[in-house]
C-alpha cells in the first residue's frame, strides 16, 4: 500500500515564551501543501526500511522506524518492509520528517485494521514530534503549546497559487532557536487569518525566525523580496527552516538559480 506524505507551511509563527522544560510556547497556523513524497509499506518476513531520493542523515534509526516500533509496542504488528522516496528537503521548515512519521502511523492503522481513531493516532504522533499530530488531520489548523495543541481555523485558499523556494540551505532547529527572543504579539495569528484580508498580512503576519536568520542568511530575505516583486500577495519563511514561499492570485513567472529547488501549485 502506498501513500504520499505532503509538506506544510507555517502561516505566521510567534515564539511566545520559553518553558521550564527547555521547549518554547508558540503560536502558528499549519497549512498543508502538496509537495509530496512516496511511502510504501508491505508485510514481510523481517522489518526493513529503505530510502531513495534525498539522503537522510543518521544511522537508520529514523522517524519512520520509530513510528512503526511505537505502534508495535502496543499492537501485534507483523514485520514489514518500508520504502520511502524522499523528495521534501530536510531542514527546510516543511515538516517532511513529521509527515513521514504521521503517514506511517495512519498507513499501519489502515493496513492492519487497528481501528484507531484520529484522536488516538494523534496521541501516538505527539511522542514522535510536536508537529506530527497535524499531519494526522492534514488540514489548516491553528497550533499552540509546542505545536501539538491544534484547533480548527477557517481558511480556504483553493483559488490561490503557491511557490516554494528552497535555496539548498539546511537550518537546524537548534540554530534557529538560538537567535530567538520570545515575545507576545500585539495581535494573534487567528485574528489576522480570520479577520484580515490576505493583502494586509504583509505587515501583520510575522515569522519570528526571520529576524535572526535573515542576518545569518541574507539570501533568504532576497528570495522573499523577489517573491513580492513577482506579485506575491504574501511571502514568508516556513517554520524554522530555510524554505521561503509566496502566495499568488495567479500562477507567476519566476526566475531563480538552477541550484534552488522550486515547487509550485494550487493551495
Textual characterization of the structure:
The protein has 267 residues and is of the alpha+beta class. The chain has 8 helices and 12 strands. The protein has helices at 63-72, 96-111, 118-126, 132-137, 173-178, 189-195, 209-216, 218-229; strands at residues 2-3, 6-18, 24-36, 38-43, 48-53, 80-86, 141-144, 149-152, 161-166, 234-237, 244-248, 261-266. The longest helix has 16 residues, at 96-111. It is globular. It starts with a strand and ends with a strand. The mean pLDDT is 95.
Q: Within the largest sheet, what's the order of strands? A: 1-4-6-5
Question: Runs with pLDDT <50, length 5+?
Answer: none
Decide which structural class fits the backbone.
alpha+beta
How many distinct helices?
8
Average pLDDT: 95
Order of helices and strands: EEEEEHEHHHEEEHHHHEEE
Helix content: 25-40%
Amino acid at each position: 500500500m502506498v501513500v504520499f506524505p505532503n509538506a506544510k507551511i507555517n502561516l505566521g509563527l510567534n515564539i511566545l515564551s520559553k518553558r521550564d522544560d527547555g521547549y518554547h510556547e508558540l503560536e502558528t497556523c499549519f497549512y498543508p501543501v502538496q509537495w509530496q513524497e512516496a511511502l510504501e509499506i508491505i508485510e514481510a518476513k523481517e522489518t526493513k526500511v529503505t530510502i531513495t531520493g534525498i539522503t537522510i542523515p543518521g544511522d537508520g534509526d529514523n522517524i519512520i522506524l520509530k513510528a512503526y516500533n511505537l505502534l508495535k509496542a502496543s499492537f501485534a504488528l507483523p514485520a514489514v518492509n518500508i520504502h520511502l522516496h524522499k523528495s521534501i528537503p530536510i531542514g527546510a521548515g516543511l515538516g517532511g520528517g513529521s509527515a513521514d512519521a504521521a503517514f506511517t502511523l495512519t498507513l499501519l492503522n489502515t493496513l492492519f485494521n487497528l481501528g484507531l481513531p484520529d484522536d488516538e493516532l494523534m496521541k501516538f504522533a505527539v511522542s514522535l514530534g510536536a508537529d506530527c499530530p497535524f499531519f494526522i488531520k492534514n488540514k489548516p489548523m491553528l497550533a499552540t503549546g509546542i505545536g501539538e495543541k491544534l484547533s480548527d481555523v477557517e481558511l480556504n485558499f483553493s483559488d490561490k497559487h503557491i511557490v516554494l523556494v528552497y535555496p539548498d540551505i539546511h537550518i537546524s532547529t537548534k540554530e534557529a532557536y538560538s537567535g530567538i527572543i520570545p515575545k507576545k504579539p500585539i495581535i494573534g495569528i487567528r485574528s489576522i487569518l480570520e479577520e484580515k484580508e490576505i493583502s494586509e498580512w504583509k505587515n501583520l503576519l510575522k515569522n519570528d525566525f526571520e529576524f535572526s536568520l535573515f542576518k545569518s542568511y541574507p539570501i533568504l530575505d532576497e528570495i522573499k523580496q523577489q517573491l513580492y516583486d513577482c506579485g506575491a500577495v504574501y511571502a514568508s519563511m516556513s517554520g524554522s527552516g530555510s524554505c521561503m514561499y509566496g502566495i499568488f492570485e495567479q500562477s507567476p513567472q519566476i526566475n531563480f538559480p538552477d541550484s534552488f529547488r522550486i515547487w509550485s501549485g494550487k493551495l
